[in-house]
Design brief:
This protein is α/β, with parallel strands linked by helices. 43% of the residues lie in helices and 15% in strands. GO terms for molecular function: kynurenine-oxoglutarate transaminase activity; L-aspartate:2-oxoglutarate aminotransferase activity; pyridoxal phosphate binding.
Length: 377
């Protein structure tokens, strides 16, 4: 397996002392209260193995959180705590995909999906979303469904494009899943990073989907603490139990003090969410305005930490990998090329930038990208 594009670009940023707008981590936004809760728990609480499915307090907090925010009727039996959302994805895939099964991916797709499907013995079927709209087209998914199709991996809100799929698009996925008896592994880690007053709909809430959806969530994304690696799976008790059996042989359990702090954050931190969204909206707007002034063609972003830039429309004749290499080496800024997010017919004229940064980081990154553009005309 190749090195992840995120690791590759972050290593390049470190090597060249570059501004890192590649890997998707914020440098602001975490509430101090949750850090204090974690510190208190590591000193006063248990530091031994947590139960494999997660601390009861956290499982209860996840269930209650989604009841308040998304109207899902859940209990601890629906929850399995994991070591980050990527491990949640791995557990969901290993629990449901058998050798010879086909799994549909909507590309560009997070680069962990395809390797995990293949490690489970499955085969990947890509359905390409087309820029600049990145819409889910029912006919394209239906054409990809065959007798061996087992699951669809849906990422909403969508990384790397920043799309928040609408009701018609989600309904298309749900109706195809029900009609063909498919599992939907729904990567919903960006569910609270909603910009411009957007509203999120979990796919499990759609007709016929509660018993066939494995929802992946992330405390790291909700609280801007990506290094904590606390995630979870939400599913029917039957599917959650299957996923927990896979999880026990992946990481078994996660740090109990961090689980305790996340439980506190989910129970007490509702007031943190809207200020967080407003800060990320301001950061997106600052980066987009700076890039526009520098002559870049910026695609819309309704969610996540990410903006995409169209190099061809910006008058830059390089492909995404060549631009990324020259930008980090010659201009001192790391970006992520979009072509590694697809294996079949990838877009080679788009890059992804992370805007979840302080103003000074954004300004330094935009200045470096302005320099890069001038160098590459």
């Amino acid at each position: 397996m190749k090195t992840s594009v995120f690791e590759r670009m972050s290593l390049a940023a470190a090597k060249h002392g570059a501004v890192n707008l590649g890997q998707g981590f914020p440098d602001f936004g975490w509430p101090p209260e949750i850090l204090e809760a974690a510190a208190k728990a590591v000193v006063e609480g248990s530091n031994q193995y947590a139960p494999s499915r997660g601390l009861p307090a956290l499982r209860d907090a996840v269930a209650a959180h989604y009841g308040r925010h998304q109207g899902l009727e859940l209990s601890a039996d629906n929850i399995c705590v994991t070591s980050g959302a990527t491990e949640a994805l791995a557990a969901a895939i290993l629990a449901t995909v058998e050798p010879g099964d086909e799994v549909i991916l909507l590309t560009p797709a997070y680069d962990a999906y395809a390797p995990l499907v293949r490690r489970a013995g499955g085969e990947v079927r890509e359905v390409a979303l087309q820029p600049p709209g990145w819409r889910i087209e029912r006919n394209a998914i239906e054409a990809a469904v065959g007798p061996r199709t087992k699951a669809i991996i849906l990422n909403n809100p969508h990384n790397p494009t920043g799309r928040l799929f609408d009701a018609d698009e989600l309904a298309a996925v749900a109706e195809i899943a029900v009609a063909n008896d498919l599992i939907v592994i729904s990567d919903e880690v960006w569910e609270h990073i909603l910009l411009d007053g957007q509203q999120f709909t979990p796919v499990a809430s759609l007709s016929g989907m509660a018993g066939r959806t494995l929802k992946c969530g992330s405390a790291g994304k909700i609280f801007s603490l990506t290094g904590w690696k606390i995630g979870w799976l939400v599913a029917s008790p039957e599917l959650a139990t299957l996923a927990a059996r896979a999880h026990q042989f992946l990481t078994f359990a996660s740090a109990p003090n961090l689980q305790t702090a996340v439980a506190f954050g989910l129970a007490e931190g509702d007031a943190w969410l809207q200020p967080m969204r407003e800060r990320f909206t301001r950061a997106r707007d600052r980066m987009a305005a700076g890039l526009d002034a520098a002559g870049y063609a910026v695609l819309p972003s309704a969610s996540t930490y990410f903006l995409c830039v169209d190099l061809a429309a910006s008058g830059i004749p390089l492909d995404d990998e060549s631009f990324a290499k020259q930008a980090v080496e010659q201009a001192g800024v790391a970006v992520v090329p979009l072509s590694p997010f697809a294996e079949q017919d990838p877009s080679r004229h788009l890059i992804r930038l992370c805007f979840a940064k302080r103003d000074d980081t954004i300004d330094a990154g935009v200045a470096a990208l302005a320099k890069a553009r001038e160098n590459m005309k």
